[in-house]
Structure formats: C-alpha cells, structure tokens
Q: What sequence folds into this?
C-alpha cells in the first residue's frame, strides 16, 4: 500500500489493522490466551519458520507450525501446574514497531501486515531478548477482523536458540 498520500479510507484501514496487531500483542503480554485464541479463524495457523524464505507448507521442519487445536493444547499446558518448565512463572513482553500494511486495500477482506518487534521473556533471574518480524494475515473488515495466520520470523532463527517458553 502506498502511504505517500493516503486517502481517509486507507488511513482508517491502517489504523484499524494496527490496533488489531497491538491488541493481539497485548493479549499475549497479559496472558489472556482464551481471548487471544478467539482472534483466530477456525482453520487459523501460527507459524515460525526456520528461515525467512522458507516456503509455506514445506516439508522441512519449522520452529513452530500449529493449527488452532495445537494452540489450544499449548495454552492448556501453560495452565497446567505440572508444567515444571514454567516454574518459576514465565512472562513475556513484546515491543512493537508500527505495523505496516503489505497487502490489502480498503474494501478488501484479506490483509497482510508486517511488524518488526523485540520480544523479552523472563523467568526467575533469567531474561532473554529476541528480535523478530510478525507477519499477520488478517481477514475481514475493521471491527470484525480475524487472524488467519501469524508468521513469526526470528532474526536469528538459524542460530542455536534458548528454550522459548511462550508464544511470540
């Protein structure tokens, strides 16, 4: 989307998509996982590829490739007191740049956004920071957006990574 001179309709769409992306991050930061899961369409997907150019549905491994069923199981694990890797408590915080529209125009029902961010995760005395870019595929119109896919590309996805306890 050309943002040099944006008509009011495009500005409204940009603001609505940005608000959706910020809201999604806030739900994760505050561990409101049921509300976060409700953002997804029924066949939604969360994907963290091993490289930025990894093709979708490639047979090679990904860091994470989960549909809504697996995401729900992950959330249930977060709540399970016997999930010993989550003790002491784990907290995460996302620091987002302004989301940019990659695809989607006013009136369209499918939009692609790109949001570079820093993720900080803390547990006990340990804290780690990761840099990533989130690519959201959002469907619907302002006020009724749903998340079709969230693709998180870690800046150093091909490196030896620490254990990441929570979803980015």
A:
């Amino acid at each position: 989307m050309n943002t040099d001179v944006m008509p009011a309709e495009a500005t409204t769409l940009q603001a609505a998509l940005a608000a959706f992306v910020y809201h999604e991050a806030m739900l994760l930061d505050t561990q409101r996982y049921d509300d976060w899961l409700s953002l997804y369409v029924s066949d939604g997907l969360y994907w963290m590829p091993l490289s930025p150019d990894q093709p979708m549905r490639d047979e090679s491994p990904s860091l994470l490739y989960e549909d809504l069923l697996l995401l729900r199981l992950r959330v249930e694990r977060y709540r399970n007191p016997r999930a010993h890797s989550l003790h002491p408590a784990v907290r995460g915080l996302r620091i987002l740049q302004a989301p940019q529209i990659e695809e989607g125009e006013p009136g369209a029902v499918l939009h692609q956004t790109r949001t570079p961010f820093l993720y900080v995760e803390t547990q006990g005395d340990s804290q780690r920071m990761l840099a990533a870019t989130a690519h959201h595929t959002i469907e619907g119109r302002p006020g009724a957006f749903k998340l079709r896919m969230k693709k998180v590309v870690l800046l150093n996805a091909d490196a030896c990574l620490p254990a990441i306890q929570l979803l980015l």
